């Protein structure tokens, strides 16, 4: 017979009373002053996202499907008595509970906007689709995360289970510890699949509500559209994070060692992917609801809405897309690092670093394609950039290229003279690989950078943005590409310097070069170049009165 836990009931009742009191005050009693309405709406959208993030943790289900091995079980304890029921290892409440909580929070957030105060209702005839309020880069990223999780769950359904292995000593002098078991994969796959399906269906339902709900009378048409985009942004980010969490739970199940395995440890790569998705979604900025009196909303091109200009607004949308590159670059770097780890047999530790650099450059190229497809006008020429990147970046590229040429020449001379080891790079191949592999890596980085820069330079001008803003976005993109190429070259240079054979001088008083320290300096420079910040877009980049003052920058 089930008993009542009065402590839990009291706590839940108090929480429910607080929520009801807040909703009454929020929807009935409180009414924001007209001059504070926009700040009130911004805070409402922000706290909806914060509360949803706080309720989205799936940590309680990280060992779902795993049967723990009893540490004290021995021959006198039957295995059936020591191992729980397989279904008891799958906490359905910890899997589905956060999904329902997040969806309910976003649902209440959309239903609790301030009610109209005006006695007259204005009918707005407009056809709104869900995809009209989804940022393209975020939409494709979230779709990729959901497909990855769905594929992982489908693969999990065919994974076999294995029993718990108790501690024992098969022969004298040997001993092995207990090993956790796991339930059949279809059991955990059913629970994860149901949770993922509820998350996907609920996310789409809330997105449809965001697109179809009434517009707020305190905002104009552009602000209402931005508010819907903000709601979609926060909902999709948390949904992608939870979907990747389901994949991480499946990955923790899949890496469990079998009883006959000789391995002593395993790595859950899906959990690392989940961390990358979490970081990306956490730093993916939602659009900002501009005030009607902001500088970007004024100008000779003002159109729909009070003080709004389609020209400036679209340019700012493109700028926000360019500012969200970190959300795509971080997962690309993680995936590139994993792919480069498969090449460590031939490239050594340089493999993950170089391949991650190439993936970052390809991501920049892809974002430029996305920018061209969504915001550029085909055939519209752009102004020539006379100062595309600053001179310090030029200097860094020249120093890295010259240092790499000198280092490769020294390596070639040392190998032809028989100095150092006769084995090849990372112990594979012949001595010639000490030049071939670093040169190939440097050329691949340069080719990826050239491809990304070509996408930036060939992009038509933004048809609905100030020319100065278009030029600023190109310079920022070229700066990102240039610093990434310089970082890749310094990485290769550091790897080459570290393997240079150091022939000691016969004179003990002569200075002895510390090549290991020099290589470490190159690696530090590579890391510094990769994270060197790019200048943010300021109002001076798109205000009409700044067009003349920025003429010297656009050439």
TrEMBL record:
Please list every transmembrane segment annotated in the UniProt record, as residue ranges: 6-25, 89-111, 137-158, 186-211, 235-255, 267-284, 326-347, 353-371, 391-412, 437-457, 478-500, 515-534
- Does the keyword section mention Zinc? no
**The entry's keywords:** Membrane, Transmembrane, Transmembrane helix
Indicate the segments annotated as coiled coil, or none if absent: none
Name this polypeptide is given: Uncharacterized protein
